Amino acid sequence: MKITDLMIQETMIMELQATTKEGVIDELIASLAASGRITDAKLFKEKILEREAQSSTGIGGGIAMPHAKTKAVKEATVVFAKSSAGIDFASLDEAPAHIFFMIAAPDGAGNMHLRTLAALSRLLIESEFIEQLMGAKTPAEVSALFDAKQAETEARAEAEAKAAEVKAAPKAAVPQAEPARIITGNPDSQSFVVAVTACPTGIAHTFMAEDALKKKAKEMGVNIRVETNGSEGAQNVLTPEEIARASGVIIAADKNVEMERFSGKPVLQRPVSDGIRKSEELIRIAVAGDAPIYRSSGRSEEGSTPVKSGSIGSKIYKDLMNGISHMLPFVVGGGILLAISFLIEQVASPDNPLVKLLQSIGGGDGAFHFLIPILAGFIAMSIGDRPALMPGMVGGLMALNSNSGFLGGLAAGFLAGYVVVMLRRAFSGLPRTLDGLKPILLYPVFSLLITGTIMFFLFDPLFSWINGGLTDVLNNLGTGNKILLGLVLGGMMAIDMGGPFNKAAYTFAIGVFTSSGNTNGMMMAAVMAGGMVPPLAIALATSFFKNKFTETERKSGVTNYVLGLSFITEGAIPFAAADPLRVLTSCILGSAVAGGLTQLWNLNVPAPHGGVFVAFLSSNAALFLLSVLIGSVISGLILGLWKKPVEAK
Question: Which of 228, 270, 554, 610, CA to CA, is 20 to 30 A from 404?
Fold first, then answer.
């Protein structure tokens, strides 16, 4: 299948009119919609923005590849577009993007389109080809360039495969049952490394990192084998023999890959973007064996050369989010069922069979019973891998039973994770004949004993006292203090719209939500109202101050009505990225007001998600919606009045 079968000429844009990242996305989506390649432009854009929120698809070198895989795509398509002036796409190298490929992949389709997209990604590594594309004047020229380049690349790959087979033939005792595994690099070189590449969607960056590593290894005279973890699963899977022979392992990935096989090897773990842009640095470290030694938990052993892998704060945040992300389904599912039971209880009675059923499923005997153990277990697992899951969950259960609550669960998770890390180092000097006993005997027994002992004698009493005091404080807050807390929580929801501040506020509200007392849903009301304001404010501003926004911004602003009502704060991110001072300032003020009003009116929302769709479960749905409306209007007015007209920019 040729690349140009997906990159149809009728969708190409030879000169973009957009001047912002949001505008580019809208213009490319409009081309897809006009050609009938997608069935739901709004849903497709949501998926595109979700991918952008993970990391920018502006890969650098003047290229951006926004992509999404969703049921909104009718037929796999790649939209090609150019901008002579260049557009700020928040690229990894902070340079403007000139060439754009919007990749639309359908759910449940075969893998042919994925192989074609992988081939496209590999072609974009070559700077000469990029220059040729920039010089193309018509869609027909673009298609001709891709057809010629793909044919050249396939011919080169076929020649390399035949050369590898010829070289391997004299050593083979029997005919090979499958094609030779191609090792890129210098056949005479003794240096050999292996790598794994993966990105969240597995569409573009996975294969671009693969090709960048192969190309750079060839230039450096290093042999390399690269496994890709794309949308169609792992391809070119590394063999145990190759891993054993390699001087080092490169993991260029933004999602989890199977790591146990690399135990005992120097493993360098970096984002997939580093595989594309820092391939020489990665290969150099792997060849020298200077990466940390991987011992199942991904931590360095003593004597290994430390390599920068992120700040302590970012590591703690990642571990915390791993626990929260696994806990959230229990919170949402159990919380909404509980909220429905409360609603039925108001019109029926506490003894109603349906009320009892819903409370049994969602409450303390059902979903809510798992919240703290799941949180602690997956925080621990993020730190110490699978051996830490069991002691983390048991520590979380001890926190639940001792009333040390959410804070105790957090402590149990981090404690269990680092206990396992400590045990790995402590047992690293044991004879290799005992390696089989470590995961099935030594780690479970000692990690559980140490974690349980510290929880029982120290953390449970300490956090039980803290949790009880916090609950008492919240239950006895005066009106002024509650309003202040609501202002802070609501404002935090808009500071980074899905980032650490937003998650910190939401996590605090969940902690209160899962505690005992009458304030369970009050903090949830503050964060939900605060989180709904930014996208709604954007929608209002683009609707009533049309001269302050471009046509594409006005069109995309309409979608924020739906996102805001659904409590999806991230819908405002593209506008905040384009104009951070005005958008963030106005949204923080409105969100703070909304959060404060929920506390002024003593509102309680007994559901952790859902926005307007669970508003009727509030203690006063009308006042909750009024809080959101007031905050949104304030933010929308400030933004609309503050921004300059488009003509004046």
Answer: 610
The residue length of the chain stands at 649
Indicate the helix (H) or strand (E) that contains 64: strand 63-64
Report the C-alpha gap between 132 and 139 in whole angstroms: 13
C-alpha to C-alpha distance for 519 and 471, rounded to whole angstroms: 8
Whether pLDDT at 96 is above 80: yes
Asked if the model's pLDDT at residue 501 lies above 50, the reply is yes
Name the DSSP letter for residue 173: S
CB distance 446 to 433 below 8 Å: no
Residue limits of CATH 3.40.930.10 in the chain: 3-152
Q: What is the per-residue pLDDT across 51-73, written as a single tens digit (0 to 9) for each?
A: 887 777 887 778 888 888 888 88
Amino acid type, 89: F
What share of the chain in percent tops pLDDT 90?
Answer: 29
Contact 44, 29 (CB under 8 A): yes
Show Cβ contacts of residue 159 under 8 Å, excluding neighbours closer than 6 positions.
Answer: none
Tell me which amino acid residue 136 is.
Answer: A
Q: Residue 93: what pLDDT?
A: 72
* CB-CB neighbours of 436 under 10 Å: 9
Distance CA 407, CA 403 (A): 10
Percent helix, strand, coil in the chain, to 5, is 65, 10, 25
**19 by DSSP, 3-state: which?**
coil
Q: Average pLDDT in the 566-575 region?
A: 73
Residue 649, pLDDT above cutoff 50? no
What SS3 state is found at 58? strand
Distance CA 255, CA 200 (A): 6
Evaluate if residue 177 carries a pLDDT over 60. no
Under 8 Å between Cβ of 599 and 482: yes
**b/e map 186-205, b = 16+ CB within 10 Å:** eeeeebbbbbbbbbebbbbb
Surface-to-core class of residue 490, CB atoms within 10 Å of its CB (0-12 exposed, 13-18 middle, 19+ buried): buried
Angle at 334 between CA 330 and CA 339, to 5 degrees: 145
> Measured between alpha carbons, how far is 625 from 447 in angstroms, rounded to an integer?
49
> How is residue 456 annotated by DSSP?
I
- Nearest alpha-carbon partner for 624 in 606, 647, 642: 606
* Residue 168: pLDDT band with limits 50, 70, 90: low
The sign of the dihedral angle between the CA atoms of 561, 562, 567, 570 is: negative
Sign of CA dihedral 71, 74, 78, 82: negative
- Tens digits of per-residue pLDDT, 405-461? 777 888 999 999 999 999 988 988 888 777 778 888 899 999 999 999 999 999 889
The two tokens of residue 84 are: 């002579």
Fold classification of 3-152 is Mannitol-specific EII; Chain A (3.40.930)
Q: Which residue would you say has higher pLDDT here, 201 or 37?
A: 37
> What is the CB neighbour count within 10 angstroms for residue 405?
24
* Start and end residues for every CATH 3.40.50.2300 domain found in the chain: 192-288
Domain 192-288 part of CATH 3.40.640.10: no
Structure tokens at 57: 């698809």
Q: Are 498 and 569 in contact (CB under 8 A)?
A: yes
The residues carrying an active-site annotation are 67, 199
Task: Tell me the per-residue pLDDT of 282-335, one tens digit each, with 9 for 90 and over.
Answer: 999 999 888 888 876 444 333 333 333 445 766 776 787 778 778 767 866 776
Task: Indicate the Cα dihedral angle 39, 40, 43, 45, nearest 10°.
Answer: 90
- Beta-carbon contacts of 317 under 8 Å, excluding residues fewer than 6 positions away, are 500
